[in-house]
Structures are given as C-alpha cells and as structure tokens.
Design goal:
By secondary structure, the chain is α+β, with helices and mostly antiparallel strands. Among the domains are: about 35 residues, no CATH class; about 70 residues, no CATH class. About 20% of the residues lie in helices and about 25% in strands. It contains four helices and seven strands. The strands form two sheets. A four-stranded antiparallel sheet has the order 1-4-5-6, with no helix packed on it. The chain has a three-stranded mixed sheet with strand order 2-3-7, with no helix packed on it. About 5% of the residues are buried. The model has no long low-confidence stretch (mean pLDDT about 80).
C-alpha cells in the first residue's frame, strides 16, 4: 500500500495525526467541525445527527400495540422435540463394484465391505440403504444383485455362498 492509498488527512502510515479523533487534537478538531464527536452520546446521537430528530421515534410502536404484539407472540405454540422412534435413515448411493467384487459403505462411522461377487466386478450399482437394510441394484438394468441386513459387528459382509468354484462346473484347461 503506497502513500497514494493511505487515508486522507494522514501524514504517515503509522505515526502523525492519521485522522484519529481520540489520540490527537487535530483529529478531534476536524471531527467536531463536521458535527461528529466520537464517544459523546453513542449511537442515538449519531442517528439524530444523520437522520434528523424524527428518525429515533419513527421505529417504536405505541405501548398498546407493543402489548398486543407480545400477547400474540406468547399465545403461539412453541416447537418441542417430537417422537423420533419411527424415523428411519434412508439414503441412495451410486457406486461401482470394485475388482474384488465388493462395495464399501460407511455406516455409523465404520467402513463396511459388502460382498457382491467377482462376476459383477466393475458394474455400476445403486445402494438403497434404510437403517441396516441394504439393497444393491445394477444401475443399468435394475436387477437386484444383493439384499442384506448389515451386521454392524463385522467389517466384511459375506455373500453367504461357500468360497471357491461352484460345484458342478469344471474349470477350462488351456
């Protein structure tokens, strides 16, 4: 900030009068000449000086109107905490099944991994969550891939199928 950007009436940036009415006689004289004396009466005096003598009383209502407004205010019902036992936590999440066939979902500050299956790897899905009940839906076809109730004590929610290849299917040999 150069000298051209300093406030008008100031000799230096840090010293001199600086236009401050409280610290120096020149500033006090300059402000009193304009009719503004800081610290003399506070905000009501400044309102009178800026807006005129009728401005201070214009915003106040007569006493009868004030009592009527207060009675109407106190007669209205107040907000109270309601019964939240029936409330549910619903959300929809758009995600993609990762290469290992799982989807991650954060619930109550913990990250849970939901197994869908490697056959659906890299498939875009919608997760419909209502409290602990979860539905995983294929975003392209609308097919329900998995429906489960989340077990909060486990990080990984298995598919329920036995691990390994399905019985009755033979592996291809090259």
């Amino acid at each position: 900030m150069g000298p051209a950007a300093w406030p008008s009436g100031s000799r230096t940036r840090w010293g001199g009068s600086g236009g401050c009415p409280d610290r120096c006689p020149e500033g006090r004289a300059r402000h009193s000449a304009r009719g503004v004396v800081p610290g003399a009466g506070g905000v009501p005096v400044l309102v009178l000086q800026v807006e005129g003598p009728g401005a201070a009383a214009a915003g106040s209502a007569p006493p009868a109107a004030q009592s009527r407004d207060q009675a109407a205010y106190h007669a209205r019902p107040r907000a109270t905490p309601g019964d939240r036992t029936a409330d549910t936590h619903d959300r929809v999440r758009v995600d993609r099944i990762d290469d290992t066939g799982t989807v991650s979902l954060r619930m109550n500050g913990r990250l849970h991994h939901i197994g869908i299956g490697r056959t659906h790897a890299r498939t875009h899905v919608l997760l419909l969550v209502r409290d602990l009940r979860i539905r995983v839906i294929n975003a392209a076809t609308g097919e329900l891939l998995r429906e489960l109730t989340l077990d909060p004590s486990r990080n990984y929610q298995p598919t329920g199928k036995p691990p390994g290849p399905q019985p009755g299917r033979k592996r291809r040999t090259p």
